[in-house]
Every structure is written in C-alpha cells, then in structure tokens.
Specification:
The complex is a heterodimer of chains A (about 500) and B (about 160). Chain A has about 500 residues and is an alpha+beta fold. Chain A has 15 helices and 20 strands. By secondary structure, chain B is α+β, with helices and mostly antiparallel strands. Chain B is elongated and about 70 Å long. Classes of the chains: A alpha+beta (about 500), B alpha+beta (about 160). Strand 18 of chain A pairs antiparallel with strand 4 of chain B, so a sheet runs across the interface. Chain B: This is YdbS-like PH domain-containing protein.
Chain lengths: ~500, ~160
C-alpha cells in the first residue's frame, strides 16, 4: 500500500455526539430537574438553586467538550486491506477491520447530516462471539468519503485471489445499477400504522360502548353509597383509556409516516437496499448471502383486509440489535407479495403444495388451552355467579382458534427449500434453505405418540442467536420424511445439486 | 420408522442423576422439616405432617428412582460422518439432527460430581443452537470431541 492518509470526521459529528449523549440522558435529566431543580428557587436564599443550575451547566459543558474531544481524536484510514480506526482520549483505542470481514455498510442521513451533504456510516461485520464488538460507526463523513470506503472495500475484495467469486460479483456491482422493486404509498403507511397500533383503540372504543350498559353490572353488591361514583368513575376511566389510546394511535401513525416515508427496496449487486425516512433518511444494505429465512407474517387484522408483512432473518449483526429480523416489507398487499419476492429471491417456490396436519391431531390444538381455561372460568363463575358464565365463551373461542391453527399448520419441501406454515396468533409462512437450517428437532409427547403424530422444530440463525419455526402435530410419517430430507447422509442427491447463492 | 440412535450415555450418568435427585430430595426434606417445625408451634395439624411425609416420599421416588431411569433409557445419541443425532426427553421426547457442516465448536465440561465419576458432558454448538450430551466417560468424551471437530472441519459453508 502507498501512503495512507488519515481521515477525520466532519466537525458536525461533535454536535451529533453531544446531542446523542444528551438524548440518552434527557429522561433522568428531566426527572432531576422536576424533582429538585426548579423547586429549589422557592428556597429562602438563591444559593441552592444557583448551585443546581451551575451543576447542570457544568454537565452540559462537559458533554459538549467530550463530544468535541471525541471528534478530535477520531481518525480512520485504509491500510493493508483493512479499515483502521483510532479513537479515545486517555486510552487510545485502535480497531482494525479487514475489508473482507465487512458484511455491509449502512448509511443514515439525519437532520444534521442533510444540510451538509453528510452521511453516517455504520460498518457491520459478522461479529462472532458475544463479547466481540466489531462494528464501527463513522458519525458524519461526506458522501464522497463514504463512497471512498466502499471503493476501497471493493478493490480489496477483488484483489483476494481466494475469493474469486466475490470479485466477480463486485465487477457486476459497479456496472449494474440499482433496480427499485417496491415502494410504499402513503395509504399503505397509514394502513400499516393503524393495523399495528389500532387494535387497542378498537377495543377501548368497544369498552366505551360497553360502559353504556354498566347498569347491568351488580353495583349493589359493592356499596350503595359509592355506586354513583363508581358508575361515573368507570365511564371516566374507560373514556380516558380510549382517548389515551386514540392519541397513541395518532402518534403512531405520525411516527410511522416519518420513519417509513418513501420506503423503497431496490436490488444492487446481490444486496438488498432499503431506504426510508423523512427527517432521518436511513439506508440499510443487506447482502442476499446473509439472509437465512424469509417469513410472510399476517396478523389476523391484516389478514382480514388482505395485507401481510415480510420479515427476513439475517445472520450476524451487532449485539445491540439483538435479533436481526429486518422488516423487508413492513406492509404489502397479499396479491403483490409474489411479484416482489420473485424479484428478490429468484428460486423460491411461492405457491408450494402444503402437506397439512392430519385430522386426528385436531384435539392437540385446543386441548392444552382447556387446561387453563376450565379452572379459570370455574373460579370466575364461582365469584361472579350470573355474569361469570360469560367466561365459558372462552371454550368455543379457543376451540375455533385451535381449528384455525390446525388448518394453517403445514409444510412443503421443494428441492433445497423447506416451507413451514403455522399460526400462533399471526399466520407465519417461512421459507428456509436446507443449508441454512442449523438443526431440526422432532418433538413427541406421550399423547402425541399414542396418536402417532409429532412436531417438527427448525432453528435458523437470526442475528447473533437463533430463531425457531415449528409445525405442530404432523403425521409421524410426514415428520420423519422431513427429518430424512434434512439428514445429510440420506439426501446426497440434493446436496450435490448446484448450491444457489441465495435463500 | 427411523432407526433410533445407537449410543447410550454412560451408565454412571444414571448414578449421577440419582445423586442429583438425592440432593433435590434433601432440599425438599429441609423445607419439609421447616414446615413441620412451624406447624408444631402454630397448629400442630396431624394431616400436615402426613402431607409433608407423602410429598417427600413421592419426590424421592420420582427424583431418585423413576425420572433418572426413564431419562437414561431415553437418552441416545449417534455421531455419524455427516450429522449428529440426539434423542432424549422425559415427558417430551425430542430427536434432534445437527448436520456436521453446521457445527461451530465442541466443548467438554466437567463439574465436581461428574469428575468424581470420571464423566464429562459435551456441548455441541452451531451458529444458533447448543446441544448437550450430559454424561460420557471422560475418555469417550474427549475422543468424541476430537472426532466431531475433525468431521466438522470439512464444513464448506460459512454461517
């Protein structure tokens, strides 16, 4: 390598550091201020409040200075195919990140970045052990500098003789341009916000309605004198809850709009690029090779109106975002799923023939719930005799719900892919590649054994840990077919097939 | 039907589990004695002594005799060239398949009781899961650890 120039971050990062620390401690700060800060001025002499104010001032100045020092001491440069970083005031820290270990570069443009054409770059590595902190954050650099990092990375990677494949991929990178695949409209965003936070509003609205019938509640049993108060109070509480939830809903719609504004997915040289955000523009790149599984999740409300969300499990990532479940599509019309997934994951079978669970395993889906429902409703009936009987509704409800789960559960095997479908509350359909499955477990209880059924659990890597998918109560023969499919020694034919680069 | 995995864990493992059971029962005995003493001073109900006695006897039967035996009978494993298969479980029988290419590392571990009986447990880790074989003869465990790590080294894929 030639002369290695050391680069600094843009000065604005001092401000950003300062604000970031401030943001982290704003809550304790507010608490301290409200508890004794402004109350202090009521004291007879002005001294105590003066002292407290000056303490705040000192703290603020200290934070500002430390932000500036952080920026001053931060250096990064490229050397020996590594991104090297040096920082710290008293303890000088160095971090060397080999370019080939870098999984992705994430760009974020905050409100402070925009006016100066800057960008925050987060360097993500696979990050092996739990103690290993291998990520680096460049708080604010110019877009040109960010491009330079990417260039250096691609250059280094293409020089690696062993990673010829990678090199070829990156040749393509430079020529192939971003191809946008999916964008979310404002209407989609509103539906997204409403269907995730709107459930509470719906139920509390229902409660307001129900409170109108409060005269059938046996208040006499409680206390004659405070009946009026309780009736009134109950209505007030219910109304209050309703308004709080309404406000929460409006806020959540608002936040969703800001966060997901202009949500776009595009494919760039074997990477999925997600951009979103109004005030803070976020750009996440996700190498296709890191994706372990693709899930289509439909919660009951969204299922009713024909929407679903798509989540991908991605390996690696940093500890702070513990499970790297990335919402690839926060919300998508069910009819559009195919066209979107087809473009990203070329070899997925999107309409698999599911093998469902046998009829005889039906009772397993609701029987376990009866175990807690029966004692619970017995207790309720005992204490609130006539109206407690309403709790018996739980029984048919859980039965119906169990049937619903039973109808959903199934799997399909398609060459190197396994598709599992199940429902907890939301219906989940997950595609996994055989070589991405970390382990497969067949689980059988005593009762299942008698009915000759068993459950299949698969684990894939998601973030730094794992996430599981389970198809419950399958026919034993089907479960064994699955295990046999997964067993390496028994299915050499599939193993020998050309391995696809992506899920 | 699939064949069950061939290997069993060491017979001494059963003994160790019984010892664990004895400890658990001893804890129950201590709690039971405490309860009885309180009972003696407060109410001195005869039926409470009987309940305590029966509970302790049942616990002793289950924890020392029955559960370890069933668990031991169920525990089977097999390390083949391309995969590891485990089967275990007391109430719920689990049979797990871990492909060799997914194995990241293998650990052996030995607590004081296990050491006394020359046993060790093996933990097989993949990128996302851990699988434990609870009690193997130390020599066997070492040999197995070595074998798995050699077999796992042929891994062709990352992650």
């Amino acid at each position: 390598m030639m002369f290695n120039e050391k680069y600094k971050l843009h000065p604005i990062s001092a401000i950003i550091n300062f604000i970031k620390v401030l943001k982290d401690m704003i809550l304790p700060f507010i608490v301290v201020v409200t508890v004794n800060g402004f109350g202090g001025s009521r004291d007879s002499d002005g001294w105590p409040s003066f002292i407290t104010y000056s303490i705040y001032a000192v703290v603020l100045i200290f934070l500002l200075v430390s932000g500036i020092v952080k920026w001053k001491r931060f250096r990064y440069w490229f050397e020996d195919g590594e991104l090297r970083i040096e920082y710290g005031l008293f303890v000088k820290k160095m971090r060397y990140i080999p370019f080939e270990r870098i999984q992705s570069l994430n760009y974020t443009e905050g409100i402070f970045h925009r006016p100066f054409g800057l960008v925050k770059v987060k360097v993500e590595t696979a990050g092996g052990g739990p103690t290993e902190e291998a990520d680096a954050v460049l708080t604010a650099i110019t877009k040109d500098a960010a491009e330079q990092i990417k260039r250096e990375m691609i250059q280094t990677k293409s020089k690696q003789p062993g990673e010829l494949n990678e090199a070829i991929q990156h040749e393509v990178v430079l020529t192939e341009e971003a191809r946008p695949i999916f964008t979310m409209s404002i209407k989609d965003l509103i539906v997204l916000a409403s269907t995730s936070g709107g459930v509470g509003v719906f139920f509390s609205g229902l409660a307001v309605f129900a409170a109108q019938f409060s005269n059938i509640i046996p208040y006499e049993m409680i206390y004659d004198e405070i009946v009026v108060f309780i009736r009134f109070g109950a209505l007030i509480i219910v109304l209050g809850v309703f308004f709080v939830l309404l406000v929460a809903w409006v806020v959540s719609v608002f936040l969703t709009l800001i966060n997901y504004y202009n949500f776009t997915i595009s494919i760039e040289d074997n990477e999925i690029v997600i951009t979103r955000g109004l005030l803070e523009k976020k750009k996440i790149t996700l190498p296709l090779s890191r994706i372990q599984g693709v899930r289509v999740v439909e919660n009951p409300f969204r299922q009713l109106i024909g929407y679903a969300s798509i989540i991908v499990d991605s390996a690696g990532g940093s500890l702070e975002e513990k499970d790297e479940k990335i919402r690839l599509l926060p919300l998508v019309k069910k009819t559009k799923i195919h066209s979107v997934l087809e473009q990203i994951f070329l070899d997925l079978d999107l309409e698999p023939n599911f093998i469902t669970v046998p009829k005889r395993s039906r009772k397993f889906f609701y029987r376990l719930d009866f175990l807690w429902i029966i004692p619970v409703s017995t207790t309720i009936i005992y204490f609130f005799y006539p109206f407690g009987l309403l709790s018996l509704i739980l029984l048919p409800l859980s039965y119906i719900f169990g049937m619903w789960q039973q109808r959903t559960a199934g799997y399909a095997v398609n060459g190197p892919h396994l598709v599992m479908r199940y429902r907890n509350l939301s219906k989940v359909t997950i595609w996994m590649e055989k070589k991405r499955i970390q382990s497969m477990t067949e689980r059988m209880t005593f009762f299942q054994k008698r009915k000759n059924v068993s459950s299949i659990i698969t684990t894939i890597k998601s973030g730094v840990s794992g996430s599981t998918a389970i198809v419950p109560h399958l026919d034993k023969a089907d479960a064994e077919r699955l295990i046999n499919w997964y067993q390496p020694t028994k299915s050499n034919t599939i193993q020998k097939e050309k391995e696809q680069p992506i899920v | 039907m699939r064949m069950e995995p061939i290997n069993r864990i060491s017979e001494k493992g059963l003994l160790v589990w019984r010892i664990y059971g004895v400890f658990q029962t001893l804890i129950a005995v201590v709690i039971g004695i405490g309860a009885s003493v309180i009972n003696y001073f407060i109410g001195n109900f005869i039926w409470l002594y009987i309940v305590v006695g029966v509970v302790i006897l049942l616990m002793a039967y289950f924890l020392i005799y029955l559960f370890p035996k069933v668990r031991w009978m169920r525990w089977r494993y097999e390390v083949r060239e391309q995969e590891i298969e485990l089967q275990h479980g007391l109430f719920v029988v689990k049979r797990t398949l871990v492909p060799m290419v997914r194995v990241q590392h293998v650990d052996t571990e030995q607590g004081p009781i296990l050491r006394k009986y020359d046993l060790a447990s093996i933990t097989i880790s993949t990128a996302a899961t851990n699988h434990i074989i609870p009690a193997l003869l130390t020599a066997e465990a070492d040999e197995l650890r070595g074998r798995i790590s050699v077999l796992a080294r042929v891994a062709e894929d990352d992650v």
